[in-house]
Amino acid sequence: MKVHEYQARQLLQAYGAPVPKFEVIDSAEQVRGAYDRVGAGNVVLKGQVHAGGRGKAGYVILSDKVADLEKNARRMLSEPMVSKQTGPQGVKVRKLLLAPAVEIEKEYYVGMVLDRAKGVPVMMVSKEGGVEIEEVAARNPDAIIKEWLHPHLGLQAYQLRRLTNALGLDGDNAKAAAKIMSALAKIFNEKDCSLAEINPLVLTKSSGGKPGEILAIDAKFNFDDNALFRHADVFEMFDPTEENPNELRAQKHNLSYIALDGNIGCLVNGAGLAMSTMDIIKLHGGEPANFLDVGGSVTPEGAVEAFRIILSDAKVKGILVNIFGGIAKCDVIAEALIHAAKEVGFKVPVVVRLEGTNVDRARKLLAEAKIPQILPAADLTDAAKKICAAV
Question: Is 109 a catalytic residue?
Fold first, then answer.
């Protein structure tokens, strides 16, 4: 589960990390009041979406003129944001963050993930902030300094000293950065994050004899979906408008669905088998339209809903059903196929490969149903060839 930038700022604030003042608005008419509350002057207006590339897309604006901010707010809220991460259709912006613009002296990166090789969280810092950490890792991996956290003791004082020294910070700046790092580590552990990063963490320019200060001006948090049941406060931040509607439908029926860009719908039981199915479709020249794992305990109703979800995607020109019956019985899927054909209607070819529990009964059911769009396959290779040829 992802959250918006303003929600990430709220989390950091709650854990004692210094962030600039900010206001969240959802209409151009709210700009004037928000502008006055953050202290006027030069401010930044940012679209709040779960996608990167906002600056290049024109959804991060700096201005000290209310009329200009109102004009841009109206545009951002009425036109979809299109970037490399959104695709050509773009995404709708529903909220905007307005905050004082910060005069930046230096930008840093601070982030946390789970190191799966070591089985513990790792905190990473870099002097090269303000750019994607993947770019830094590819271009200059030595620029990323890591400290692995003890699973029970967490981030220790000596590790904080190493990390702040690696950023070249000392004195009050080092203390402020250590406070932010501690807050980030605490959020990561207590809220079951899969990703927590501040990019950039900045040192502001000194002004009028006042020294620069360390601030977190942009942050990103992802949370483990499987742990949300114990974090009601985090789940309240969930924004369904940022999710694919079909993925939300699938969740309600305990189906694992991820939309892709191809034209061959996939209905498979088992995540590994689903991955293999997508691979073999690619091998034979096709493009999968989705990942869909119906799981081992799928019900007839759930299986029918799976077909509805696949067929609601206008890009789908054919479906490959690949069932290796174990707990999920082949005849349950066959009955769902027949039911879906009658209730939903198949206007595209459906290639079916069934193997395992109750497969003979399943094949008999499909043969007796005599549905012209359903094409049986002898094995997975045969199925992949047939569906790729059909589309």
Answer: yes
